[in-house]
Design goal:
About 25% of the residues lie in helices and about 45% in strands.
């Protein structure tokens, strides 16, 4: 079955949204991150060592938690998107190498792999994430011994 122009546009816009999220996280551009979620979005990063809650609380935690990592690189691929009018769901593969600077100056690298499971909504400003669950699939390497997430 052929896709309509609207369905093609929606899929491209959702792909751009998912990429924008990775850019915001990796560049630590919190204003850009705000353009990825509805203000009261529900996020759950607990499977990968994070927290869950509404977007403002999780955003504040992300700023603190990611500030200790000079290297974060989020690769996303293989998104399955189901459209339903002004709502959509998506499941996207993510591989995330991270680097932590040890007290001795060396870089401790490890990689987290998993899936973003999202519920999305079309808003006046374009597609936004209204729910995100990060499912854990694997971790290659270990967490740094000196890692302490700021409170």
């Amino acid at each position: 079955m052929a896709l309509s122009i609207q369905e093609i546009s929606d899929r491209i816009e959702i792909g751009d949204l998912l990429t924008r999220y990775t850019v915001a996280i990796d560049t630590k551009d919190w204003g850009l991150l705000d353009t990825c979620f509805v203000p009261d979005a529900k996020l759950d990063y607990t499977q990968t060592g994070g927290i869950e809650g509404e977007y403002p609380v999780v955003r504040e935690w992300l700023e603190k938690a990611l500030s200790v990592f000079p290297v974060t690189v989020h690769y996303i691929s293989n998104s399955t998107v189901e459209l339903d009018g002004d709502a959509a769901s998506a499941r996207t593969y993510v591989i995330n190498p991270m680097g932590f600077q040890n007290p001795d100056g060396s870089m401790h690298m490890f990689t987290v792999g998993g899936y973003y499971v999202d519920k999305l909504v079309r808003t006046e400003d374009g597609w936004r994430i209204r729910e995100r669950l990060e499912e854990s699939a694997f971790m290659d390497g270990t967490l740094p011994e000196a890692l302490q997430i700021p409170e």
